[in-house]
């Protein structure tokens, strides 16, 4: 996603602050829950999503990102898979011996919390897309929230720059009046003061972006997206020379999270 160019002379790089949320993704996430087991003779239902998100706009250059996820009522199937765990289940077999042969079994169970390889992750996401019709809507909502916040933050930053320039003009007008009255002139804001004010705003934006990342990361975990909510034992601090060791390092996990975000954006960005 392209970012506006920084024209405010700030000591902080707003491009770095307002990059895609993937650059701020935490390096390790809590463990996912396991799916409940279906009762005999019952079919495991597909994951059902019961949450949403909303963000409040920033006002008067005060960067405050507010998030809220509210559970919404939905019909409860007799047997349901956990939202955090297994994303594929066994088709219920027909009890009537004269009935048609049972539907073919879906692909083997995949637990997103254990995936450490890219191709397996893509297959997992593809299965989720097929089994969960709400998946795309939730991903698009996160993309829209991100875009809205980035645009609002940039708009507020530009407004602050305009405000700083207008202060200089107002000070000149005030000094003309004071000069006519024989009073001492007012001092203009220094460049250092303006830069410090803009840098303070950038810090607020950075903190707000981190809060947004935390919310979106939790959302991806709840959706069962691989690499978000990976089991801690699947991550190691140091790389292993053992070819049979399927664990990944924290740095590799971060790279896979970024790659997954880019993959989802390619799929669902309007």
Give an account of the 3D structure.
InterPro entries: DUF2458 (IPR018858). There is one protein chain. With 270 residues, the protein is mostly helical. It has a domain of 175 residues. 43% of the residues lie in helices and 1% in strands. It contains five helices and two strands; from the N terminus they run H-H-H-H-E-E-H. Strands 1-2 form a two-stranded parallel sheet. The N terminus is likely disordered.
Itemize the secondary structure elements and their pairings:
Blueprint: H1 14-17, H2 118-131, H3 135-181, H4 191-223, E1 235-236, E2 248-249, H5 250-268
Parallel strand pairs: 1-2
Give a brief description.
The chain has 270 residues and is an all-alpha fold.
Determine the structural class based on helices, strands and strand pairing. mainly alpha
**Strand sequence of the main sheet, in spatial order?**
1-2
Helix content: 40-55%
Rg (CA only):
26 Å
Relative strand content: under 5%
Low-pLDDT sequence parts: 1-14, 20-97, 99-108
Number of strands: 2
Oligomer: single chain
From the N-terminal CA to the C-terminal CA, the straight-line distance is 12 Å
Per the principal axes of the C-alpha atoms, what is the gross shape? elongated
List its salient traits.
single chain, disordered N terminus, 270 residues, mainly alpha, two-stranded parallel sheet
